[in-house]
Structure formats: structure tokens, C-alpha cells
Automatic annotation (TrEMBL):
<feature type="transmembrane region" description="Helical">
    <location>
        <begin position="83"/>
        <end position="104"/>
    </location>
</feature>
<keyword id="KW-1133">Transmembrane helix</keyword>
<dbReference type="InterPro" id="IPR005828">
    <property type="entry name" value="MFS_sugar_transport-like"/>
</dbReference>
<feature type="transmembrane region" description="Helical">
    <location>
        <begin position="21"/>
        <end position="41"/>
    </location>
</feature>
<feature type="transmembrane region" description="Helical">
    <location>
        <begin position="372"/>
        <end position="391"/>
    </location>
</feature>
<feature type="transmembrane region" description="Helical">
    <location>
        <begin position="271"/>
        <end position="295"/>
    </location>
</feature>
<keyword id="KW-1003">Cell membrane</keyword>
<protein>
    <submittedName>
        <fullName>MFS transporter</fullName>
    </submittedName>
</protein>
<feature type="transmembrane region" description="Helical">
    <location>
        <begin position="328"/>
        <end position="351"/>
    </location>
</feature>
<feature type="transmembrane region" description="Helical">
    <location>
        <begin position="183"/>
        <end position="202"/>
    </location>
</feature>
<dbReference type="Pfam" id="PF00083">
    <property type="entry name" value="Sugar_tr"/>
</dbReference>
<feature type="transmembrane region" description="Helical">
    <location>
        <begin position="302"/>
        <end position="322"/>
    </location>
</feature>
<keyword id="KW-0472">Membrane</keyword>
<feature type="transmembrane region" description="Helical">
    <location>
        <begin position="237"/>
        <end position="259"/>
    </location>
</feature>
<keyword id="KW-0813">Transport</keyword>
<feature type="domain" description="Major facilitator superfamily (MFS) profile">
    <location>
        <begin position="10"/>
        <end position="422"/>
    </location>
</feature>
<feature type="transmembrane region" description="Helical">
    <location>
        <begin position="397"/>
        <end position="417"/>
    </location>
</feature>
Amino acid sequence: MATTRRLSRATLASTVGTALEWYDFSLYGTAAALVLPHVFFPGGDPAVAVLASLATFAVGFFARPIGGVVIGLLGDRFGRRQMLFVTLLLMAASSTLIGCLPTYQQVGVWAPIMLVVLRVLQGLGAGGEYAGAMLLSAEHATQARRGLNAAVPSAGNALGALLATGVYFVVQAVVPHEAFLAWGWRIPFLLSVVLAVAAFVIRLRVSESPEFTGAGAQAVPVRDRFRDVFRLGGRRIPLAMLMSIAPNVLSYLPSVYALTYLSATVGAPEWIGLVGIIIANLLKLVTIPVAGWLCDRFGGRLIMIIGSVAGAVLFYPFFWLLDTGTPLAVWAGLVMIFTLCCDLTLASQATMLSTLFDVRVRYTSVTFSREITGAVVGGTIPFVAAALTAAFDGLPWLVALYCSVLCLVCAVATAFLPRNRPVAAEQVAPGAIAATHH
């Protein structure tokens, strides 16, 4: 019974902390699609402004692998719990400062430069956040419940995105349009400092991972520890990178680019897309735990392949539903891709990554494989989709084909992932990893 309580406390605290922290990262995606082009990239061509704004969204993803590897290396040395405070500080500070930035009209080109710098800091924190929360939850769990517990922090991401979208929607609805562009957009960003305090208090109640503690941290030089990631991971590393493609496609195409597409191409009111994202994220609070349970029941490999193939097929009807501009159709499309297909891949990704690598280099291995794919695919997909749509005279079919191919690549890579688990930490002498360097 004590184990059950300890597990619940670790998972709940990790998830709620992630929700409050992921509020920052999600808020930027919404603002990049809808308001930042007007504030930081004004110009004669609205399409160019949108592309410039989405490019800054991508910058945060390019910083995530760097932050992920650095935080992962430290997390494998000093523990998962300590690093979650570092990521919290980075994301909260950068988001709050974004809310204080002067606009392009006030300081010219310095405004987007400062925005990019803060977005980089935000990306550095995000690079180690989700992996740390996921591993801390999974490593507290029993083997029978590992999929469920590994998946639940993804619901924290959804809760944070839900909170960000909801706050943005409320502020936009209450503040007149001109005032919103002048100062109202800052309010959601400034709230980050309040949420950071709450997340800090919650994370104080999280104990360190028993698997990490049992493995015994070794004072191995950073270069040697990073080498161990590839020595112990082998082909798991590149296959895990490819396996992480679909979760990124199914997350950021509908949650970021779809808002731009609905507003700029379809001509639908902004509230339709925002409400759709809110609905989809609300449902995630149920579908992600269910998907985690399915991973425990049928295995993460099968669930990932099902979610990836379903996404590849359904991107075509997804854009058809968006093109109607009708609220119910748009919301159905967002739920179909962003909730149902995406959550199957998110839960299975967390389940597999939490057991795929040796515990002594697990944090670094997860952040390396997950965040590089996030940068290359997740960070660029809104920009690439906008460019493909513009090149195809506003038609989305080339975007749908691009996304479908990426999802199928993910499914194939997942099928080739090794079935055998690496040697468990308790089966290895505590000094073994250090001994390889003498």
C-alpha cells in the first residue's frame, strides 16, 4: 500500500509540475501563430510575418537537443529530481521576460532578436523537462503499471497547453483587439512567474527515482558518459529517433500550424481553432491515461504503429474538415488527429523510451533521441507546412502527403526496434560503467 501511495505522489507531482511548466512552451506556440507576427514582425506581407514568427517557434526546438543532452548528462549524474528544478527555472524566467519585451515599433530589430534569445532559453529548459518527468514517474512504477505511469506526464503537457490556450482565449475575449495587440498579449506570459512558484512547491514533494538511486551514480567524465550513450544504446538510438517522428507530427501540425491555416487560408475566426484546441486537450486528460493502459496491456510497439498509421491515413480528411470552416467539423478534425492519433503515439513513445535504455545513461539517451527529432520534425513542421501551402496556392494536400510519409517512417522504425530490454541496473555491478574508462 505504501508503494501505491509513493507511486501516486511521484506521478501526480511530476505531472502537475509538467503541466504548469509546459504552459510556457505551449503559450508561445499559440502566440507565434496568432499574435507575435503583428507585434514583432510587422511588414507589408502578412504571409512573410507569419513565416518569420513560426521560424522563432522552430528556434526553440533547435535549442531543445542541446538543453536535453546537457540536462540529461547532469540528470544521469545527479538525479532526475534535481534537473526538474533547473528546467522549471529556465522556462519560467524566459516566458516571463517575453511578456516584458519591447515591440518592434519601440526598439526595431532588437525586439525580434531578444525574442529569439528568450525562445532559445525556453527551448533549453524544455529539452530536459518532459524526459525527466516521464522517467521519474516510470521509474517509480511497478513493471505492470509502467506504461500508464510513463504516459501520464503527457497529460500534464496537455493540461499545460489547455491552461495556456484557455488563458489566451479569455484574455483575447475580454481585452479589445487593439488593446490586446498593444499590451493584452503580455498577460498570459507574465502569469508564468505565478505558475512557476506553484510548480516549485509541488516538485519539492517528489522523491528521487528508486531505479536511479539503485544504479549508483558514478563520477564519470562528461565525454565518457556521452560515449556510453552510444556504446550501450547501439542501434536503439537511431531507431528511437525515427520512432519519435509521429508524436511530433501529430502534436505540432494540428496544435500550431492548423491555427495559422484556419485563420490565414480558410478565413475562419480565430476562436474556432482555439476552442478546438481546448476541446482536444480536455479529452487528452482521459485518452492519454487510457493509451498508457493499452500500452501495458498490448505493448507500446503495437500501439505506436497503430497511432502512426492511423495518422498517415487521416491527415487527408483532417484538412478536408478544416477547409469547411465549420466549428463542429474543425473540432472533429482536431480531436481525430491531435487527440486520438497523437495520444496513442505519445503514450507508446513514453512506454518504450522508459525501458529502452540502460538506467545509467537513460536520461541522456532519451533526451538525445527524442529532442533531436523534435527539433528536426516538430520545430520545423509549422514552417514547412506554411511554405508548402503557399507554394501550392493555398491547397493543403502536399502538407498532408508530407505528414503521412513521416508517420509511415515512424511506424516502420518502430517495427524494427529491438524487442529485448537492456540489462537491468540491479544486474550490473555499481562500478561497471566507470570501470570501462580505466
